[in-house]
Amino acid sequence: MNNIEFVNKAKNIAENYKTAYVWGAFGFTATAANMQRLIDQYSKNNQYLAKARQIYGNGFFFDCVGLIKSILWGFCGNKNSTYGGAKYTANGVPDISADQMIKCCKEVSTDFKNIEVGEVVWLSGHIGIYIGGGKVVEATPAWSGGVQISDISTSGKRTKNGVGTAVWKKHGKLPYITYEKATAKKLESGNDIVWELMNGKHKIEITEVQRAVNALDKAKNNPEFMSLYWILYKLVNGNG
């Protein structure tokens, strides 16, 4: 599996499946029996019971590192399989914790300006998947609870809909997948343009800069983007 395939699978789960965060789960089908099994194993899961019940018979349970392992183990959304089609410890991927997983990674860094698509992002006890454009897929009890897409800044700040939580501390490349170098591409959104421009990964055409300025109009009072906003504004207006 390469990094693009890995990211696409993570995005598919976040966008197209009903999920609930449950400690120790890696794609378990959302049944009362599986929930009780996980409660028996980890009593702390009682706090996630209400959300889990909402998707009984129609979704899947994950925790943060369980999401990553399930994808690598072959999760395919099969509701007739205990683990959604994943095979425990398949493909040479061990059953390890979030903290153990970051230790297995290559090119681990605390500088989020050089992060690549498909890398994992980590803070103590928690892990997610960077999908590009300043976005992360993570299984978390925060916000809506479950597998969801959140935001990340070049400083590692973690937010969703303007609500922040702990800061990501490190990122790195998983040893279980291959990483393909980014090629020239058409940037689809203002978010993509801004993130890639800030990281110097693409030559940005002036029309795309204009789109980035438009995308930043609502955020130009945010200190993190203020300087960039005016740089882009000057470029578009021929003053740069």
Q: How does this structure look, described?
A:
The chain is an alpha+beta fold and 240 residues long. It folds into 3 domains: 3-92, no CATH class; 98-173, no CATH class; 190-236, no CATH class. The chain has helices at residues 3-16, 32-41, 49-54, 64-72, 98-104, 190-198, 206-216, 223-236, and strands at 19-21, 26-29, 60-62, 106-109, 120-123, 126-132, 135-140, 146-152, 158-160, 163-164, 170-173. The strands form 2 sheets. The protein has an 8-stranded antiparallel β-sheet with strand order 4-11-5-6-7-8-9-10. It has a 3-stranded mixed β-sheet with strand order 1-3-2. Strand 9 and strand 10 (163-164) form a beta hairpin. Helix 7 runs antiparallel to helix 8. The protein is globular and about 60 Å long. The protein starts with a helix and ends with a helix. The relative contact order is 0.13. The model has no long low-confidence stretch (mean pLDDT 87).
Break the fold down into its secondary structure elements and pairings.
Blueprint: H1 3-16, E1 19-21, E2 26-29, H2 32-41, H3 49-54, E3 60-62, H4 64-72, H5 98-104, E4 106-109, E5 120-123, E6 126-132, E7 135-140, E8 146-152, E9 158-160, E10 163-164, E11 170-173, H6 190-198, H7 206-216, H8 223-236
Parallel strand pairs: 1-3
Antiparallel strand pairs: 2-3, 4-11, 5-6, 5-11, 6-7, 7-8, 8-9, 9-10
Question: What key phrases describe this protein's structure?
Answer:
alpha+beta; three-stranded mixed sheet; 240 residues; globular
Summarize the structure.
The protein contains eight helices and eleven strands.
